[in-house]
Amino acid sequence: MSLTIGILAEANDNRVALVPKNGEKLIALGAHLVVETGAGKAAGFNDDTYLAIGAKAGSRAEVIKQADLLLSIYPPANQELATFPAGKTLVSQFQPYFDHEITGFLQQHQLKAFSMDMIPRSSLAQSMDVLSSMASIAGYQAVLSAAKLLPRFFPMMITAAGSIKPAKVLILGAGVAGLQAIATAKRLGAVVEAFDVRQAAKDEVQSLGARFVEVEGASDDRTAGGYAVEQTPEFLARQAATIQDHARQADVVITTAQLRGKKAPILIEAATVEAMRPGSVVIDLAASTGGNCALTVDEKTIVHHGVTILGHSDLAKEMPQNASEMFSNNLFNFLKLLVVDGELKVDMSNEIVSNTLITKT
Fold this sequence. Notes:
Blueprint: E1 4-7, H1 20-28, E2 32-36, H2 47-51, E3 56-58, H3 60-66, E4 69-71, H4 78-81, E5 89-92, H5 102-108, E6 112-115, H6 130-149, E7 157-159, E8 162-164, E9 168-172, H7 176-187, E10 191-195, H8 201-207, E11 211-213, H9 233-249, E12 252-255, H10 270-275, E13 281-284, E14 301-304, E15 307-311, H11 320-335, E16 339-340, E17 343-344, H12 351-356
Parallel strand pairs: 1-2, 1-4, 2-3, 4-5, 5-6, 9-10, 9-12, 10-11, 12-13, 13-15
Antiparallel strand pairs: 7-8, 14-15, 16-17
Helix pairs in contact: 1-11, 6-7, 6-11
């Protein structure tokens, strides 16, 4: 009997996990597809676009009942998961590094789960890396959000009314989100500098036309899989002094540094914010794990001493159509490892599959 794959609608998110283009490819692999009514509408993919590729549409209850394999960007709430029939397979972002209880909970309810945020950050798995895909959108959106909030121009403006200096943008963390933010801010005409504890980021930062802010003595990060690593107290003291000096001169600070499974490091203290020019902006992309700014409130925009602080770790959902397409591409590339001749086949000898499977039923 062929595998039935279900697409669930997201709660408080306009994205959809699988778009019709990739759904058609899954059907070509021998699977059946059923989508929750309206799941893709807010991202620009109405039910007709799914029906046109041979999928079926139904209520949430019908999708959960009919599907063997359920797809979503973020998992349903635990209260709902507890009602799922035993034996279902779920593919989502369960974030087991942060939610230490989720694996046991899923195991208890006999649900097999693959977590897309556990995809290895390797060249082999690059086409499946949803964290990098969504981070690139977040970096882009962070700059656009800052430009909207900043009461000053990004580019230099020479007009009959006088000349306006370009905005100065400081980006803390030069991973995927940070590099995209650098590129976007440069395109808008800002003067950009970036800091990262990873020396390997220096060449990438400079290749995008930004100045790399160096603080000597960072801990080795080569085995951190692209994440930041915890640093010594001596390094953190030098880092804090350097960042405060550069933030004081910046119009915009965008922070992106996160530690896997741990609270985000504080890079911008309250005193640093208070030293910034009134009207300046801080965009904190690490807000959901505590924030890189001491004053950040997750999912809120606040103003402190005339400085606007936006705490938002999931800016990718502000661009739902392209974000859905990118997530869907990553998801389809992963599902190709699981769907063989219309059936679910879990090859535990595959490092990507074994890394993402967080429960066994």
